Amino acid sequence: MINDHHTYEQLKIITSPENVMADEYLHNHTYTRLGGKADFYVTPETYKEVQEIVKLSINGNIPFTMLGNGSNLIVKDGGIRGIVLNLGRLTAIDADGTTLVAQSGARIIDASQKALSHAFTGLEFACGIPGSVGGALFMNAGAYGGEVKDVLESAVVVDAKGDLLHLSADDLDLEYRSSNIPDKGYIVLEATFRLEEGSYDAIKAVMDDLTFKRESKQPLEYPSCGSVFKRPPGYFAGKLIQDSKLQGKQIGGAQVSLKHAGFIINLDSASATEYINLIHFIQNTVKAKFGVNLEREVKIIGEDLGV
């Protein structure tokens, strides 16, 4: 574990001392309620602070990890070494004409609500996605037939060297549940969405319908990472899991949801290891029964205990 007093002091100089926590349990910051400690958990307030933290990690050879808001993520029980960055303090959302500019720490749900308030159409699909704006770009998030790729115009990012870049949507190689953001080492700071004028009542009706569908079909009453698997070509992941008789299957405190087979819930103080083992069990069972490879949509990061 990195417990470098100098790094701690440097981080407190870059941003406010209250924005830097040492030995912080990441299960406090993930939707699954899983994850060991981060050496340094940092929540900067400006783009400049993000740049300076990246440069500190480079110059000090300190491991660096972007956490996002922890919604589509499993952090292992051993936690994460070095600096873990969360942009949850960057939450501004502004409208200009039919353009919506949202900082990366804002929830994509809140961006869709802001669009509704201006009667802008295009972001209705995002009204139930629990992730941040930055996380939505990272994985080209989508639901109910829409995806970020459909409405994203541009983004502001910090690259792996700490430089600020203004990129077009095409620069991000957005594909089904993927982008080049992880490969390039980009940190998304801001997204600009190009929307269209619409009818407030019609937009609200669509969002209300999607919210009802989500709340009635998804196990939102338990901690989870959302949809665990990508949709395999020609199939539905949840249907394959259900047809494999795996609903209710439990390893430790992790369980395949009885409400929606595509979800794994933290039913009873699960460890990340139990959660991950259940993912592997599902993949192996579906492969054996149907010959279909289920690819994870959720990201797994961090170290195992004892590493």
Automatic annotation (TrEMBL):
Requisite cofactors: FAD
Function: Cell wall formation.
GO annotation terms (biological process): cell division; cell wall organization; peptidoglycan biosynthetic process; regulation of cell shape
Catalytic activity from the UniProt record: UDP-N-acetyl-alpha-D-muramate + NADP(+) = UDP-N-acetyl-3-O-(1-carboxyvinyl)-alpha-D-glucosamine + NADPH + H(+)
Pathway(s) the chain acts in: Cell wall biogenesis; peptidoglycan biosynthesis
Pfam families in alphabetical order: FAD_binding_4, MurB_C
Subcellular location: Cytoplasm
Gene Ontology terms for molecular function: FAD binding; UDP-N-acetylmuramate dehydrogenase activity
Domain FAD-binding PCMH-type: 34-198
Organism listed in the record: Lentibacillus salicampi
Protein name: UDP-N-acetylenolpyruvoylglucosamine reductase
InterPro entries (UniProt xref): FAD-bd_PCMH, FAD-bd_PCMH-like_sf, FAD-bd_PCMH_sub1, FAD-bd_PCMH_sub2, MurB, MurB_C, MurB_C_sf, Oxid_FAD_bind_N
Keywords noted in UniProt: Cell cycle, Cell division, Cell shape, Cell wall biogenesis/degradation, Cytoplasm, FAD, Flavoprotein, NADP, Oxidoreductase, Peptidoglycan synthesis
Annotated family: Belongs to the MurB family.
EC supergroup of this enzyme: oxidoreductase
Family matches, as PROSITE patterns: FAD_PCMH (PS51387)
